[in-house]
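does this look right to u?? uridine-5'-diphosphate version
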Amino acid sequence: MTGGAGYVGSVCAARLVETGHDVVVVDDLSTGHEDAVPEGARFVRADIGEAAGDLLAEGYDGVLHFAAKSLVGESMVDPAKYWNGNVLTSLKLLAAMREHGTPRLVFSSTAATYGEPEQVPILETAPTRPTNTYGATKLAIDHAITSYAKAHGLAAVSLRYFNVAGAYGGFGERHTTETHLIPIVLQVAMGTRDKISIYGEDYPTADGTCVRDYIHVLDLAAAHLLALEHAVKGEHQVFNLGTGTGFSNRQVVQTCREVTGHPIPAEFAARRAGDPAVLVASADAAAEVLGWSPERADLTTIISDAWEFTRARG
Ligand code: UDP
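got this back:
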């Protein structure tokens, strides 16, 4: 597993260990944390592009590829970091998998591959027109995976995450540069921030604020385990992962108030560049093909788990 010291990777690593898999986490700790690697997983601190060949020579039945640069804003001002860090590294990983005959790949793709949607909920067949470099690099990797599956018989699944939140078993969101709504709002509740700025109040939505589809990180991890089981040789399957329900930024802030009991002062600020008004997944394909259904889809549950993690870390 690459990137297993990061947020989503650490929860997936924990679930894989708990379900009896032998897990090796490769992570350069550029954004991850060594103490987020769960007990029972072997940890290798290395650059994936450099280490993949030697590691895969040991013989593995699959790779889960989480490692990536994932800050949308940064991707626009430092594209090389994203084209090299995401695409080049993934191409090296694919080459090493081919060389050593590693049969299966589950890749962390993103809703950002779609860009501004023409229709919601978003189907996997929707046009892919990313509006930022981060999404473009993830889409480029998806294309490369499709080619490898066809040409070399790789069994591949890309999972397009919508808005991941929540925590599991002491593993949660710990980004040094935090840009995501829920962890920022919880920082206000913790007293480490004064207020939340809600970006935009004049979107064409019911309450004027953006709508997003929040998925619990534990449900996301469950989908990865199912994807490993359902990967088919020579095929590249793509699934959206969200709950199919949207919540507005106002609703998120209000639910955080209810969960934390903190007043959470909020102000409205200018729209953030590149933010689509509504991003909601159709999760039907994941349900039908993978047999996946989210069990912690309720926003209060998602936020409560994130809050418990945030408070425990102090
Ligand atoms: N957002 C906000 N204030 C913040 C951070 C985010 O209003 O301090 C909004 C953002 O504009 C978007 C929503 O919250 O409408 C979700 O943003 P996030 O960065 O969490 O995820 P994204 O949907 O961009 O992947």
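The chain is about 40% helix and 15% strand. idk if thats expected tbh
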